[in-house]
Structure formats: C-alpha cells, structure tokens
Amino acid sequence: MGYIGVKKDCANDNEVISYLRENGLRCGSRIKLELRTRMGWIEFIGFEVLGFVEGLASVLANRFQCPAFEWGEHTILGEVSAKIWNEAVKVVYPDGSSEIIEVLIHDGFLDLDLPTEKVRGLTGRIIIHGLEFKIPLEPDDIERILLIGRRGIEKIEKAINVYGYSRLLSPGALSKLLSLSLEEERKEIDWELGYVIIMRGKKITTKSIKEYISLLINTEKEEEILDIYDQAPQEYKEQIVNMINEAIKVYSEIGEKKKVEFAEKILEKIAEKREEH
Which segments of 30-69 does DSSP mark as H helices, in order? Predict the structure, then answer.
C-alpha cells in the first residue's frame, strides 16, 4: 500500500483516478495533505494505491505538469527494526527536480505516530494500555487516561519530554494536565465499611476495597497492593488474599495470562511477608 497525488486544483479527482486506472492501479481512500516544500506550503490531493508507487510521482508530474508526490515503503527513513523511524513523501516537480519531506515519526517505544511540522492534514495517535488516542489529546482524553492509572499519565509525560507539549496536547488538555499536577491524590481506607475513599482536589470518589484491589491488579500496581496488605488489620489480610485469588480465577477464564502472572507474584510476596512474621 502507498499513496500518490498531485497539487490541488491542477487536476480534478476523476482525471487522476482515470489516469491511474489506465495504468493498472487501483485507488482507495482519498487524502488531503499540505506539505511545506522548498516552494512554500502546497496543498495536495492524493489516493491510497494498491501496489508499488515508486516512480509514479515523476509520471504524474510530467502528465499533469504540476507537483506530485509519492509515499510508500521506499520513502521510509531509518530502520523499522530500531523501533523509531520517519516516514517521508517524495515530491517531484514538472522540471524533473524532487525533494524528500519527512511527514511522520513512528516511535515504537512510546507507541506513538506523530506528524512532523512539515505536514498538515495528518492525524497522530498514541496507544496507551491498548487504547488508541488521537493527537493532539483533548481534555476528555486526559480523563480517560486517568482511569488507566498512573502508568497512563507517565506515558504522556514521557512523550511530552521527548516531543514537547504543543505537538501532543490541545490547550484544553494542557490545562487539564497542569491542574492534575497541582492536585495531590490522597487515599483513605475505611476497613470497617470496606471502602477506599479517593480524594483529588475537590473531587471525592469511593470504591469497595475489592473493586480497588481489582483495579490495582489490572493496572499492575504491585507496591500499592502490598502497602494496602501491610496496613490491613489482621482479620482483613486473609480477605485481601481471597480477593487476589478471585482475580486470578477471572483473568484465567478470559485468557489474561500476564495479569494472572502478576497476581500470582503478589501472592508470593505476601507469603514471604507471612514467613517473616
């Protein structure tokens, strides 16, 4: 799969599609891109093409006498195996000259696809705990990431450290994230009632201890689970072990092997604590 296109207004969609079909190519979805070229910003219309696109920009530039671009595997810059690489497009002009423009950064360490500052019209994305979020992030996205737990926010913070606020966050999302950093989260456990009270700023939420333990297992918060176990009254410690065993049973039934291994590791550490006493 690749993309190919021409400068907007230099040819209509049907002309381009017909020409590509005449040359044995099948066209898919239409895209619209603006590229910062040596001639300034140029808007292009393009099409997803089934097949190889290498060399087609030169053909289109000559046929329609206007700038054309191609974008495919041959315009990848860097080694995919290195987990960080850039995608580029090749722009060809009617006089035969050309230039390579980097348009997309792939960061496999952060599960991030980020458009460069040389392109408009591409949507970035970041994957957090299996969920895909469009870039720039919006305030609602920050709320959803909060539900994932501290790991989600930490991933955003790492991405910001590498690529900057302005490329990853909308103004609203930035305000939301900054407000979170000013709000210290506090938790209190009511052992008698069996609830965890969570306070962040003016917002207070409650969860049953069982629900909270399940959440911590799901987000793999080992230290916090062990802290809760240490704080628990003696009569409650066995209940926590039972909660973890129930979680193991559920995760086993749905095939979440990694979660099962994590929970079993917690039980091993609890067993070690018991032996020490």
Answer: 56-64
